[in-house]
Amino acid sequence: MSTDFKSIPVIDVSPLVAKGDDLKMGQDPDVRQVVKQLDRACRETGFFYVKGHGVPHSLMKEVKDVTHKFFHLPHHEKLKIKLTPSTGYRGYQKIKANITKGVPDLQEDIDYYRDVKRGMYGSLGEILEGSNQWPQDPANFKASMEEYIRLCTDLSRKIMRGIALALGGSADELEGDKGGDPFWVVRLIGYPGKSPANPQTNDIGCGIHTDYGLLTLINQDDDITALEIKNLSGEWIPATPIPGTFVCNIGDMLKIWSNGLYEATLHRVINNSPKYRVCVAYFYEPNFDTLVEPLELFVEKSGRARLDQKAVYGEHLVDKVKNNFVMEELN
């Protein structure tokens, strides 16, 4: 449950990065300190900055740079990888094609998913079947993104092991048939700068929402504050960029698994800067076809009544996908 936090904690996860492949890492005193910090952050804010993560700062900058370059291409070039149902909902969508709770967002995006082969998840995954669309320009776009996704997947797995320990389970408690074959989603988002002609407007780059998976790694431009987190009193706390860090937050699936002990926190994006802003958002998810429901171990440890919530992750994702776009723009 979030609190009246006024700032977002910074956690050095380097002990998790170093020890994260060892299932006995919970015996390490440095790892135990990180686990305590993760537990507090997940209980109190649902958001935290991550440093010491091992993803090269140069690569974090490169993926933002190529994202900027793509979004500044002529519109007809961007449409070469247009998102449609026939592309498995992968690719580019123009400004205000994405919607949050029925309201168009002032953003443009490229959506990527882990490859879904035909029949891989039966009818459950049918609408996401396909491979990702990669632009030819910038030339290093695909190689940079694929390396970045690989490193973010490994980092997220290690952070989730720390969170599993924080919840009182084993390091691999949330793996196996729950999250041992994790799905992932990447969204590259561009937010236009505020128009000098309308300096008083607060155009919503992304409406108020929680993330629907497990864990999100946000790689945002270093010089623009636009992401805001809502505390228990309803105040919006800015996630001011800290160069070289990720902003990490937990999602709906972790709330369910933890029996509500860890709450997904509401957030939004408003770009009040005159400068164009990009965000590279990586979403680490459960196994696509797993049933997510409160885990008995965490129900017992939480001391709370069992949440009356459950979802097959893939169904939850597909429902979001079907309702997140202005459909006439996809034809």
UniProtKB/TrEMBL annotation:
Organism: Hibiscus sabdariffa
PROSITE patterns cross-referenced by the UniProt entry: FE2OG_OXY (PS51471)
Domain of life: Eukaryota
Domain Fe2OG dioxygenase: 182-286
Gene3D superfamilies on file: B-lactam Antibiotic, Isopenicillin N Synthase, Chain
InterPro entries: DIOX_N, IPNS-like_FE2OG_OXY, IPNS-like_sf, Iron_ascorbate_oxido_reductase, Oxoglu/Fe-dep_dioxygenase_dom
UniProt-recorded name of the protein: Fe2OG dioxygenase domain-containing protein
Family affiliation: Belongs to the iron/ascorbate-dependent oxidoreductase family.
Annotated Pfam families: 2OG-FeII_Oxy, DIOX_N
SUPFAM superfamilies assigned: Clavaminate synthase-like
UniProtKB keywords: Iron, Metal-binding, Oxidoreductase
